[in-house]
């Protein structure tokens, strides 16, 4: 969509917050993309925390990190909408 002309407007660990952010952007017609990083890793091989230590001691609230990106021309408006959506 806009791979090189994008900027992050939200990074967090809450699916509920992610839903609010996406809803606010969709309501205003701002195009966005998002990325989900699973820190525990699907595989238990080398290179993941789970592969090195198992799931012992992991706070499952921080297992997945959500990031939302918008086109650079929409960053200011999107940041305002994100802030408003998360602090109502």
Write the layout of secondary structure elements.
Elements: E1 6-12, H1 15-27, E2 32-38, H2 49-53, E3 64-71, H3 75-86
Antiparallel strand pairs: 1-3, 2-3
Helix pairs in contact: 1-3
Can you put this structure into words, describing what you see?
The protein is of the alpha+beta class and 88 residues long. It has one domain: Alpha-Beta Plaits, CATH 3.30.70. It contains three helices and three strands. Strands 1-3-2 form a three-stranded antiparallel sheet. The longest helix is centred in the first third of the chain and has 13 residues. The chain is globular. The chain starts with 5 loop residues before the first strand and ends with a helix.
């Amino acid at each position: 969509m806009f791979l090189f002309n994008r900027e992050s407007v939200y990074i967090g660990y809450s699916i509920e917050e992610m839903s609010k952010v996406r809803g606010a952007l969709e309501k205003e017609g701002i195009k966005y993309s998002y990325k989900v990083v699973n820190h525990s890793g699907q595989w238990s091989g080398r290179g993941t925390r789970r592969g090195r230590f198992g799931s012992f001691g992991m706070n499952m609230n921080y297992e997945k990190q959500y990031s939302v990106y918008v086109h650079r021309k929409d960053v200011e408006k999107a940041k305002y909408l994100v802030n408003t959506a998360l602090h109502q």
